[in-house]
Amino acid sequence: MGGGGDTGGDPAGVLVLAAQHGARVRRHRPGRQRRHRHHACPQRALPRCRALDLRLAETRATEASAWNRLLALWLLRADEVDAEQAAQCPPEIIPGIYCLRSRGNLDKLAAIGRPVIVPLRGESGTSWAVLLGVDVLRVRLGMGGDSFDIDRRQLERIWNGDFVALWKAQPWLDLPLRRGDRGPGMDWLHTQLLGSGQLAPLVGPAQYDDDVVAAVRRLQTAHGLQPDGILGLETLLALTGEGEDGPLLRRRL
């Protein structure tokens, strides 16, 4: 068949065909995989970096241990949800308990305001910690049964931005909520936005109208999220992050 010859797995043939069609080609090196870059430690901070790497190597806290600590912070008993079940992180682990795997920086996590699980990639492998506090200079981590403070830069050297969050919200929310939606979920959302000063009092049934879209976008922007005006999991986490129901990040360390 004209113009559709099989290259037979020949890399040179693939490059020629791609060039003929004007495609940009990136050469693949066999066996090479993307890895998290372990940032070099500045010379002046070497003692602290070595001390942190030694702590990670000695503790080697597992993901299960981090989950046990986070579940305890939320006062969730093992007969309600255990670490193995929680680590699967479905959108709703059990009714009213939500979970999210995402990425961000420390400013984003500080804005969310809840403890989260973070993987730390030290010289000896990956350990798992619970982020307990953040201020302008330092962070507080919980590993195993211990808690300790380190500089923000030290954390950024061994953390790639991944995090796992757990929080409580109404169990009957049918996410995502978006423009035009009505019902119990919309009534609840309006109450939350009203309580935070994002919306004016409502006359009549709640509806996901232009005012709600604008309020949700303001909330998303304030928390470093994409301002699409839709209430999804990450926006729900941001919305409930300042509530009194559950543990909060420490702001002063």
Automatic annotation (TrEMBL):
Per its UniProt record, what Pfam families does this chain match? PG_binding_1
The UniProt entry, under InterPro entries, shows: Peptidoglycan-bd-like (IPR002477), PGBD-like_sf (IPR036365), PGBDSf (IPR036366)
Domain Peptidoglycan binding-like positions:
183-239
Question: Could you tell me what this protein is called?
Answer: Peptidoglycan-binding protein
Gene source species: Alkalisalibacterium limincola
